[in-house]
Specification:
Elements (H helix, E strand, L loop, with lengths): L1 E2 L18 E2 L1 H10 L3 H11 L1 H11 L3 E2 L13 E2 L1 H13 L3 H11 L16 E8 L2 E10 L2 E10 L3 H23 L2
Antiparallel strand pairs: 1-2, 3-4, 5-6, 6-7
Helix pairs in contact: 1-2, 1-5
């Protein structure tokens, strides 16, 4: 059990709406992955230690940088390449440990399915999505039987019309991948 302090609650996700502050660590991890909960993410960064996590990312991944907490207003920035996003997804899906199993379950039950997964049946994917006011990202493994595609779609937009077009493109890519896998 861990305690999430009230002064660490930020917007985005479930934790900012609930009164409960004591959680199982696996639930915090699940909320970070399945709900993109910003408080859960920041809590895990603090739990591990910001500097230690940032250094590990820099050492392990060529294009992943932790420069700030989520929702923090600063001139520092976080960044991640599509290639590195897919590498992280593949590592998590290949991890047989209890940690990997928690992550896999959270990615399987992703709450946000309006991008690559929009027109797909339930139970055919693992995914992690993210968004900001000008960004729509989605990384997913879409599968049918033992065959799958790993896809990462990262986008930056200006204006609601452009955002709508990006979401439609993401929907089309996911649907095309699934159709190719199933022959339908």
């Amino acid at each position: 059990m861990v305690h999430v302090p009230e002064d660490k609650i930020v917007e985005g996700g479930i934790l900012c709406h609930l009164a409960q502050r004591d959680w199982m660590m696996r639930d915090i991890l699940d909320l970070m992955l399945s709900d993109s909960d910003n408080t859960a993410t920041n809590f895990l960064i603090d739990f591990i230690d910001f500097a230690k996590m940032a250094a590990w990312f820099e050492a392990e991944f060529a294009h992943l940088h932790l420069g700030r907490y989520l929702m923090e207003v600063t001139d520092r920035e976080n960044y991640l390449s599509a290639e590195t996003a897919l590498e992280l997804l593949e590592r998590l899906l290949a991890d047989p440990s209890p940690f990997g199993q928690v992550c896999q379950k959270a990615l399987f039950y992703q709450e946000s399915v309006n991008k690559l997964l929009q027109d797909l049946p339930e139970g055919c994917s693992y995914s992690k999505t993210g968004e900001l006011e000008d960004t729509e990202h989605d990384a997913a493994r879409i599968f049918a039987g033992d065959s799958y595609y790993d896809i990462c779609f990262m986008s930056h937009y200006t204006g609601l019309e452009e955002r709508e077009q990006i979401l439609l493109a993401q929907n089309a890519v996911g649907k095309l991948a699934y159709q190719d896998l199933t022959g339908k």
